[in-house]
UniProtKB/TrEMBL annotation:
Residues 1-21 form the signal peptide. Keywords: Signal. This is LppX_LprAFG lipoprotein. The keyword Signal applies. InterPro entries: LolA/LolB/LppX. It comes from the Bacteria.
Length: 270
């Protein structure tokens, strides 16, 4: 269930969809073509901000949720800030939530549980991306954090064979067209970059077909993407609500006096 949660939180259709034309700006596009255009638009986005909403349950009926925000930029340097301020399971909150900042070839992690386990006196720990060596657990954690991005979320949708437009709706005061459909996970993963396929495939391996909803604005940009899946391990619903595109963001490393080094072998994926 933890792998499903990470894939859904940290992530959120070109095919034989409906042929009914739907408005997208001044152009009439089929549902499948509209999502294909959105995938193209995503390639040109240099920065964005989004809200993250995840609800999940395991095979025993216990439920949980994740709430947070994320900032992502490609220019002038690649950086991201994922802040999961609320993480609960079976009624028990994770104290302090989880925050990961990737900046200047360094990952900064704020996790109160890790601080307690390692005896650190600093609220943040850092790991140089070029200095990971054979620390597999840290590599896996950072890989999962880096998979949550706009391009991957939209690319997965383009494997849909049944996408259709279901209406006009407003998301965060922006007019959008609402599309809905499903996509086969195994086929969708093949559309991702080679270095991302293994991580996503492993996290979603228990899900065969994913249901999705996408709200696309007149510029062809996604204002909301929601994924719903289920397997023997449990169920989840994950949504990314995009609040800005191509705006200057403030992503910076924590103050140096608040940062310690990651102890080797620290259980960050547990």
């Amino acid at each position: 269930m933890r792998r499903l949660l990470v894939a859904a939180a940290l992530i959120a259709a070109a095919g034989c969809g409906t042929t009914t034309a739907q408005p997208l700006g001044e152009v009439q596009l089929s549902a499948a073509d509209a999502l294909a255009q959105t995938a193209q638009k995503a390639e040109d986005v240099t920065s964005y901000a989004a809200d993250i909403v995840v609800d999940f349950s395991d095979q025993k009926g216990s439920s949980g949720n994740v709430r947070g925000t994320m900032l992502f930029q490609q220019k002038p340097t690649l950086a991201s800030d994922i802040n999961l301020s609320q993480v609960t399971f079976a009624g028990q909150p994770l104290p302090g939530g989880v925050r990961v900042i990737l900046a200047d070839e360094t990952a900064y992690l704020k996790l109160d549980v890790l601080k307690q386990l390692t005896g650190s006196t600093k609220p943040w720990v850092k790991v140089g991306l070029k200095d990971l060596g054979d620390d597999v657990s840290v590599r896996q954690f950072l890989s999962q954090a880096q998979q949550i991005d706009l391009k991957s979320s939209v690319a997965l949708l383009t494997a849909s064979k049944d996408v259709k437009a279901v209406g006009q709706e407003t998301v965060s005061n922006v007019d959008t067209t609402h599309y809905a459909g499903t996509f086969p996970v195994a086929e969708a993963v093949k559309l991702l970059p080679a270095d991302s396929q293994a991580a996503i495939a492993g996290q979603l391996s228990a899900v065969k077909d994913m249901k999705f909803d996408a709200w696309i604005d007149a510029e062809g940009l996604p204002r909301k993407i929601q994924l719903n899946g289920g397997a023997e391990q449990g169920t989840f619903s994950a949504a990314l609500v995009f609040t800005s595109f191509n705006e200057q963001l403030s992503i910076a490393a924590p103050p140096a006096d608040q940062v310690g080094d990651m102890p080797k072998g620290a259980p960050v994926t547990e």
